[in-house]
Amino acid sequence: MNREILFQRLRQSLPAEPEPYPEYDDGLLLSRTGRPENAESAFRLQFAAINGHAFDSPLPLIALLRGTGNTRGYCDPDLFSLLGRPLADAGLDVSTTFDRSRYDDYQFGITRATGAIAETGTLVLSDEVTSDRLAALAPWVHIAVVDPATIAPSVPEAIRRFGDSVHLIWVTGPSRTADVEGILIEGVHGPGVQVAYLSSASSWTAPNLPSS
Amino acid sequence: MSARQPIDQFAAGLPGDRRSSVLGSCQAATSKRVTALADDFPHADELRRLAARIKQHTLDHLDRYLAAATDRLEEQGVQVHFADGAGEARSTIHRILADRDARRVVKAKSMVTEEIHLNEYLIERGIECLETDLGEFIIQIDGDVPSHIIRPITHKNRREIAQSFEREGLGAYNDDPEVITRRARVHLRDHYMRSQAGITGANFVSAESGRIVLVTNEGNSRFSMAPNPLHIAVVGIEKIIPRDRDLGVFLNLLARSATGQRLTVYTEFLRGPKAPRQPSGPEEMHVVFLDNGRSRILASDCREILRCIRCGACQNVCPVYRQASGHAYRSTYGGPIGAVLSPLLAGDDFASYADLPKASSLCGACREVCPVDIPIPDMLLKLRHQAHDAGLRSPGSPPMAPFAELATRPMVWRGAMSLSRAANLLPTRMLPVPALQSWLQLRTLPRWRGGEFRQWMAQRAPS
Ligand code: SF4
To answer: Whose CA is nearest to atom 2 of ligand 1?
Structure first.
């Protein structure tokens, strides 16, 4: 269809007295958890409320992975010294390449988050810092490494921080459905277990890759 | 001719277990919505009215905002197409796929692709087109149609689903919802990985940044776009909002109104093909903006209906929908939103859906829950008038001319009131008048007390 015809048609359809844009204060958009005193502790609380697991040291993460039988996985090479090595040292099978033809073999995937939202317990991932979209999506356990300094207190603030990313995704809990008789099941297409690993970005640098 | 409206007929024939599953899921969704909104926002109504004004403002300047969104998308390397009607949208999508020899397509849930019947069209042309939302997948393998905007299989129980999975070779009969979900997970990810294109809708498009916003709980839109090189988003032209900032209003309202969540699990904001260094994701992106009657609705006195963000809250709360189910509305959109939108979208075929606006008691519950404060009952009345003016009578409507005759002649009225008391002595259930019997099947006549008020007035002591 010729776009000019459509725009002309639209112009002819518009009302004589159009509604003005309503000015509003972002404060109106804040829910009861939208004004946290401490963004990191608020995030932990809200993340737990949507069945997320937040850790800040490798040991409880290793226990979770072992306990759920998810011992084979992928780690973003930039995060190897932070998490990949401790997991490998504990006997877990950690790869720093994501081989798409074996996508189903990875039981966990470790990638970076670009931020988080305290108000809702949401992780913010972006194309620019996620080493592979599939690594954050296909494994049963997704571990997002979040720098606490990047946690936005509220949804409106997270929107202000969009920047120019071409692809952002907010992840609020594990993938879920209630399609069958309204019964909630976690882990439909995406991860059934969502982990946030809180660690200051200064400790991620100095990649220390395995000698493979 | 039947003395009942088509929706009444459908509801009367609905099996009991189906009726109770629709009713139960609607009640649960309604109470979750109330809790999620009231707990979080003491002034939820203020938020709804704000959302209504932002959306109305956008619609009232749609030429400007649609042009801005198009410019932003094109600047970011997205190819933008415009389709007048369903046929043009289908052929545009088919051409994009055929030019790239894409024969395996995965689809994330989208009402607008339901509206244009895209799947059947592509499948007839040799393209494998697979729905990936669990509910929509089950609808597809059953050759069924969705009965709710958010919960497409709200009319099905787990036993029926387990039978369908067994029939399709997805495993021996097992009706555990967890097993059903795992089987779908395994089956569908194989299809994602082999697909050559992903088709989605869009929940919102920001005119300011060109960001397309997609929400899903299952993660299927993310998976529909991760492994393959081509993404096509099919978007109704009413989906635009002015600024990114306004998303804060709509995302807060949409998740709470639709499923009682604070945010839907996956909320994606995309402005074009994947980032250059990202190994997974589409290298090419197309947006097909669809009119399909929307500009005509914009010019009508029902334009507010275009504010709809497809949350399904009006369906959940509607007493007619709860008893009749979405299929009773014979169109893509059921419930109060469908009773308004379907006749309007039908255009020249208005007569086929002119009975839908009558399927309401005008209780107003739909307006109270609507996150964009659409005055649905007012529109139902306008459409009833439109049907009346077009000379369309729906079955079950009693003839009003004799009543008008009575009501405009006081003498005759008084006489009729007193005489009609004889009706109390008649065995009404046995009178051989088919129209009366059909009417009485659904109703009980109270004792006739015509004329008593006048008597009371006349005898009342003056104060
Ligand atoms: S009309 Fe309102 S309540 Fe109904 S689906 Fe649309 S936005 Fe939701």
So the answer is: B370
CB contact under 8 A, A172 and B278: no
Q: Are residues B287 and B405 in the same domain?
A: no
| ipTM for the predicted complex | 0.95
pTM for this prediction: 0.91
| Token pair 């009417």: residue | B439
The answer for residues whose C-beta is within 8 angstroms of residue B118's C-beta and 6 or more apart is B89, B90, B93, B107, B129, B199, B234
Nearest CA to B214 out of B145, B166, B172, B266 is that of B266
Residues whose beta carbon lies within 6 Å of some atom of ligand 1:
B 149, 308-314, 337, 369-372, 374
Q: Do A179 and B132 touch (CB under 8 A)?
A: no
* CA–CA distance, B54 with B253 (Å, rounded to integer): 13
Which of B294, B324, B344 delimits the end of a domain?
A: B294
Mean pLDDT taken over chain B:
92
Q: Which domains does chain A have, with CATH numbers?
A: 37-202 (3.40.50.10420)
Task: Output the pLDDT for position B456.
Answer: 84
Shared domain for B273 and B418, answered yes or no, is no
Write the CA distances from B288 to A1, B88, B113, integer angstroms: 11, 10, 11
**Whose Cα sits closest to atom 3 in ligand 1?**
B370
